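sorry to bug you again but im stuck and you know this stuff better than me. theres a chain ive been looking at and ive put its sequence and its fold in token form underneath. id like you to explain what the token line says about the fold, in plain words if possible. anything you notice is useful, everything is just below.
___
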Amino acid sequence: MFRFTIFGVAVEVEPWFWLVMAYIGGGFYALKSNSPDAYMGVLLFMMAGFISVLAHELGHALTGWKRGGGSVWIRLWAFGGLAYHQGGRLDRRNRCAMILAGPGAGLVLAAISIASLYVIFPAPEAFTRMLYYLTYTMIPHEYMLNIFPDDRPVYGFLNAMVWVNVWWSILNLIPVYPLDGGQFMDQFVKSRKRMHKISIITCIVVVVIMMALQMTMGLIFFAYFAYTNYMGYREAKY
């Protein structure tokens, strides 16, 4: 267990977090190819994933703390991250602000990463590279290496930062409990059974899309969320 403190917030990072980040970043492909470039791509993605998930949870934690959420701490685990609050009470307005602060922090990081391209590389070269960053979501292959032979760490890291923070922020806003979108929905849907039912239906739709796109990790995540919401639906009294 890796522990540290940032901005007065205690953070715990479980080993499973790194394993999942390595898998999403192409760890199996790197082991199969045994290529230094592939390993570099995985490490860059893990670094970007760690910074991004931590920033997301800090958005929740610091916003909740500032608005009266009590003591806070963060845990990064296999399914991303969790921000815990204890000893405080938030009204619906402040709770909604706390919920949206996570994806908001991710989108700010994405904007910073995009802006960095225009600082590091001159236009129109930066615009050309930006198109590749937005469309290329795997680790570098030979075609990309031929385009950017001298800047592999730079474009690999920025590519991962843009991809993680844009797409993960969007996925987090899907109305599936306990994702941020589901927690936001929970502030307005009075019936717990209805909230879980909406989450289950949404999960089924997302799982079908993930199967069509052959996105294994996303399929596992939303299948798990569908199961937990089904159990929550059965246990809910209203």
About this structure: The radius of gyration is 19 Å. Residues 37 and 140 are 7 Å apart (CA to CA). The chain is about 70% helix and 10% strand. The beta strands are 2-6, 9-13, 70-77, 80-87.
